[in-house]
Amino acid sequence: FSLNASYYVQCITFYFFFTFVGLNLNLSDCPPLGLESLKVSDDQLESSSYLSVGLGPHRGRLNIQSGLEDDDEYDGAWCAGVEDQEQWLQLNALRPTLFTGVILQGRNSIWSLNWVRTYKVQFSNDSSVWQPCMNGSEEAVFIGNEDLETPVLALFPEPSVAQYIRINPQTWFSNGTICLRAEVLGCPVPHFSETESGSSDDLDFRHHNYNEMRKLMKSVNDKCPNITRIYTIGRSYTGLKLYVMEISDNPGKHELGEPEFRYVAGMHGNEVLGRELLLNLMQYICREYNRGNQRVIQLVKDTRIHLLPSMNPDGYETAYEKGSELSGWALGRYSFEGIDMNHNFPDLNNIMWDAQELAINKRRVSNHYIPMPEYYTSTEVAPETRAVISWMQDIPFVLSANLHGGELVVTYPFDCTRDWIPRQDTPTADNDFFRWLATVYASTNLVMANPERRICHSEDFLQHNNIINGADWHTVPGSMNDFSYLHTNCFEITVELSCDKFPHASELPIEWENNKESLLLYMEQVHRGLKGVIRDKDTRAGIANAVIKVDGLGHDIRSAVDGDYWRLLNPGEYKITVWAEGYFPRIRHCSVGSEPHATICDFTLTKTSQDRLKQILASGGKIPRDNQVRIRAMRMRKLRASTKILNRRREQQRLNKIKRK
């Protein structure tokens, strides 16, 4: 045998292995090889020709998004440079692979209409000799697209084992040209000396629909009843419950001084990786707690954790029905009524900025706890958004992250620009700490931290170390992050977890490994800065709603119902002023260290004299004698002062009359 012939026999042998040696493989079971997820590198893609550099073979990836302009280096498909039936897009799988199907999509563009209507497929082991995909005795012709965005799956009637595959367009939209985005389905031929990379954690790595998610959460609660609690914060438009998993050493109770943390996933229903990561996270914490993992035990002991895996369950179910590769870029993104929840929160940014513009003294304009505007109640607000707002108001959250997908970057507030500029760096008063939070996640994420990684679509976030101010990416008025910062005490960032919004189930183990340390380390940041309790000097009771002001930072926070507070800060020396209605303000200088342990900085406030007297009288008590004497003296001083003023006025009036005469 020649080398090529021997290789061909080997491939045939592997095909029979797949077919007859008990794997019972369905064609749809073979996963995507990774054009969309970037598992396939640019070097593995070639083409017969291309229209421009930005329309080269490396852009022929399912769901890839173009930049704002056509014909730049980040265009939205592979487009052939010649319009004939000899053009092709080629993939080198790097090893013998059982190819089972192709998913095709048109060119992503708002300016042009280009898609392939029919195509053929060929296979090769050496990229020189090619064999067509057959349908019986005839060469198979597959149906492609009739629009730009809908993915169309074609399963091969006769799967083939080979190393190379070509997609060969035959017809295309008459008013366009040959352009396509693709994903290839295939099962790598097993090399028994190799083991597939994945995760060492024995977790439930698969996609969970609504019912399966409920069962998984229940199983975690059953295994760890002492540290977990499942509760709901509302329902979706179709009536699906918004489930939250609470993890704490005292679930169901806010403990004085213990910070509250939340992760929210699935705001866009088709961005599913966050949902699965939170389900993995709750399994992992439960298991490691039971195993005695000291890091996890400490986290559970010191933090009250809330995990909302699916904020938009209606959207998820829509995307789930289509599946990971066929839901496209937008199916399931919005709520059932078509609302984008990422723009559905009250826009408090512009309310604050407008008030600052009109104010003579800008320091008098509130920079926190900005109330929701009256008009918001009459606007179209999703029930899921209303439920999350109530949740945020009920629990004194300190830190949060909103998990999205479709990019690899971490964004921090503000998300909305001033004056409706499309994109502009718009920092908060806590910009340095927000940058720290974003860096914590991005620098420990195994994909983001890889300096050799390929960009997802058209934005090169590597030059920003994979973090960016949200408004400097694109303006998002009414975002949850900005609302959280301006309406509550909670600092929140957005994590874009992967280029692929709906990764195949086979990719979930490695995605867990990519994000595990980031998820844990980010939660631990809730213990940075200052914390303490603000109490009444006389009664020692906690003072709710006290304002905590950091000198030099234009963003205040407030104490919770029991008087406890948490102020996230970078290491340094700070002058803190605390005041509450009816109390004299108090100033302290507090130091924040570099260790992830908050510095305790308690305050005791003294009631003003007037409020102390009101409190005594309201309780039916008598004013102490010494206080009565002070009150009489104070009244006499006021009477003398007012008499002097009155006499001066009368004397001035008398002099004015004399002058007129």
From TrEMBL:
PROSITE patterns according to UniProt: CARBOXYPEPT_ZN_1 (PS00132), CARBOXYPEPT_ZN_2 (PS00133), FA58C_1 (PS01285), FA58C_2 (PS01286), FA58C_3 (PS50022), PEPTIDASE_M14 (PS52035)
Entry annotated with the keyword Signal: yes
Main localization, broad class: secreted
Co-factor(s): Zn(2+)
Keyword field contains Magnesium: no
Stretches that traverse the bilayer: 7-27
One GO term describing the cellular component: extracellular space
Active site (UniProt): E496 (proton donor/acceptor)
Highest taxon above the source species: Eukaryota
BP GO terms, sorted: proteolysis
Subcellular location: Secreted
Domain Peptidase M14: 206-526
GO MF assignments: metallocarboxypeptidase activity; zinc ion binding
Similarity field: Belongs to the peptidase M14 family.
PANTHER family: CARBOXYPEPTIDASE X1-RELATED, PROTEASE M14 CARBOXYPEPTIDASE
Entry protein name: F5/8 type C domain-containing protein
